[in-house]
Amino acid sequence: MTDVILEKVGKAYPNGYHAIPSVDLSIEEGEFIVLVGPSGCGKSTLLRMVAGLESISTGELRIRGERMNEKEPAERDIAMVFQNYALYPHMSVYDNMAYGLKNRGMAKNLIEEKVSDVAAMLGLTELLQRKPRQLSGGQRQRVAMGRAMVRDPKVFLFDEPLSNLDAKLRVQMRVEIRQLQRKLGTTTLYVTHDQVEAMTLADRLVVLNKGKAEQIGTPMDLYNKPATPFVAAFIGSPSMNLIDANLTEQGIKISGALTLPLSHQHRGGIVWGIRPEHLEVSDEQNADFALRIQAVESLGAETLIHGKIETESGNGEPIVVRLSGPHLPDVNSLMWLTAPVSHWHLFDAKTQQRL
Amino acid sequence: MTVTFPQKGLPWLLLLPQLLVTAIFFLWPAEQALEQAFYQEDAFGLSREFIGLENFADLFTDPLYYQSMLTTLVFSFSVAIVGMSLALLLAVMADRVVRGKLAYQTLLIWPYAVAPALAGVLWWILFDPSMGPIALWLKTAGVNWNHYLDGNQAMILVVIASTWKQISYNFLFFLAGLQAVPRSLIEAAAIDGASPFKRFWTIVFPLLSPTTFFLLVVNLVYAFFETFGVIDATTKGGPGQSTTTLVYKVFDDGFVGLDLGGSAAQSVVLMAIVGLMTVIQFRFIERKVQYS
User: Fold this and answer.
1) Where are the domains of chain A?
2) Which residue of chain B is at minimal alpha-carbon distance from A53?
3) B291 — contact with chain A (CB < 8 Å)?
4) Who among B182, B193, B291 is closest to A90 (CB)?
5) Can you list the alpha helix ranges (DSSP code H) found in chain A?
6) Is the ipTM, as predicted for this complex, more than 0.95?
7) What is the model's pTM?
8) Relative to the CA of B94, which of A86, A262, A336, B60 has its CA 20 to 30 Å away?
9) Is the pLDDT of residue B119 over 90?
10) Domain A2-234 falls in which CATH fold?
């Protein structure tokens, strides 16, 4: 069943600025959707429009078939977790979680039951009488989630909820959020700028760029078949190698020095891409090109090698190679590489669409 | 950070002007008052006689003094409560204004720059029973306004005049306090189903409590000690004793009634009250509720 539908939803400000031209998205019940993009891409604005904290300028938002554009945030049956948690500082953890239920006129004993259930689920039972300032970052985060869960809303909205936590806690909370969402089965819309968070949490991802949905799909769809160079560069770490090139009769010409044979009907400017993990070490005879090594990053389990494609003029395109396991090639030495055709990504330079 | 001066003399030299001002205009008169409180002086200041605590004894057996204390309390709390409520209302409204925000805020701050006596005269004219526009309007509305005869009306007048001046100050602090409340808290409360009214009383107002408490103390101190100008320009403490606050009584008894000793004893009592209020103020403001 489709739960949330955004139909040509757009946001224009009174000064004429179109933050979001038009976004179409339909979310299934229980689905975990992540809105991801660089800062300023409109992802938070879009989330706030769903929450009712920002007005919807054009298009329509429907939750369970009902038009929501004119409804107050409280009438939309959504719950939101804010980046700074937005816990009420003068209220105890219990009161923070009970506030929304009290406002809805729920009976006191029922509130107590609900809050203690959720608190137990999140391991907050011991902390119910504390004030937010007496909690650690991770605990505050949990309270913020508890406050959202206790109301049993139709939709959860998360606005970069993990960005104020340290790296270790972030990984832990990420797993917890995913497990909780699975258990509760609540439709979720989650905003982040962190592609790892996006890839690991999402059933489907929406990559936003300048207020436009560049691509919507499962994390693996986006990884395997990015629709635009923007998505290609955004998903995956380190990012995909993207090089401006020309497609001719002979194949792909890069920097006028390197030709990769390919028969394709398209002619003219393209963006050629290959992920760092798909480049393979080879020898001089079989290699597609040589890489002049500039820096080596050894991470133990893998090694990132930064270099430039070796050309006669000496200013080849920069390339990153990701090899598994430890490698220690000399800086400034040459490394022979092949780029398997099956892993190439080609985009039209003009339309920025996948070929 | 500590800065150390090579010579011992220079820091004192730099402090000297402030120390002189404090000594000449604050410490010396205070000492004089303290001394005078134990003497009885003739009206022309030609002779005086040590009488110990008699001035204080007179003071604390004088029903008029207690009457004045009550007047001061009524006056001060009225000024503080009316001033703060109106300022909060204005601050909440100014905080919601989007267009021309700066103009509103600037206009609302202006009255603070008006001298107390001028503020007094302004309201005195507006409320003058024979020609004041507000008094005349009140008459057509059926209220017989004459603060020269009616003590309660006189009290209302001095409260209005004193409050008007203090609203700007309160407004500034409330506005800053409101702007410090994170927007996301209000949004969270909106999602939690609280009406705008409820959001204000359950979220915003409690978060303003440090500001509110600070302003309560400041306003009480203001009403207690800094409203002489307003009262002198409007009612001169009258009719009868109905607007004679403790500070006005010090002036009235000392310089009009020429009872310098009694007036000095009153100022010593006032000094004690100021001290007490300062202690309370610092105690609570130091321990101001910390929200993070």
Assistant:
1) 2-234, 241-348
2) B187
3) yes
4) B291
5) 43-51, 93-103, 108-122, 137-149, 167-184, 195-201, 219-224, 229-234
6) no
7) 0.78
8) A86
9) no
10) Rossmann fold (3.40.50)
